[in-house]
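The protein record now logged underneath.
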Amino acid sequence: MRTVLAGVAALGFLAAGVVPAVAGPEVAQLSIGIRGASGLSEVKLNCDPTDGSTHPDPKAACQALADADGDISAIAPSDIVCTMDINPVSVTIRGPWEDTFIDYRGEFPNRCVASAQTGGVIPDKA
């Protein structure tokens, strides 16, 4: 009897032109790869919840991403001072963010600058 009532209720929604929303996961699970002269390091950034992150400050990184609607290029740079050592790093950030998929690539003169330019999303140290 419950199955029949659920089916009738669903038909009522469809007849009224209302389709119930299906909630999907809104968890960000980003992989941050940093390649430099010392090799490749990888950091995991999970947002909401931050459980399982290997990022040193996941809450701040997730907030920077949220403030920029997941657009790495739109993140306001941090107010930190970096030396201008030339130790280039290539960075990739990939993974789901809300209803999109982030696939970011960037080149920076050193890891400190990478961190500053991305508001700490790319950690200065792993």
